[in-house]
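thread: overnight batch results

M.L. [08:02]
morning all. the overnight job finished for the chain we discussed friday. pasting input first so we're all looking at the same thing
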Amino acid sequence: MARYKVSYDKSLCIGAFACVAACPKHFAQAGDKADLIGADNAKDLQEKEIGEEDLETCKDAEGVCPVNCIKVVETK
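M.L. [08:03]
and the structure it wrote out:
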């Protein structure tokens, strides 16, 4: 089964929360910006691995972000 990495650059987030609406399992409102749920505790760049079962909603979040601060890539 393929694995994917979700990378979220919180420093670029403008607080539109489109990612939260598209993918509430992995993104949550945290004050004036979103957080990537279950990610490492990095201040600005948050990352986590997901499986194929979560790919569609995470790709949706990537697609609706108005500042393109979410990236989803396949890991090897």
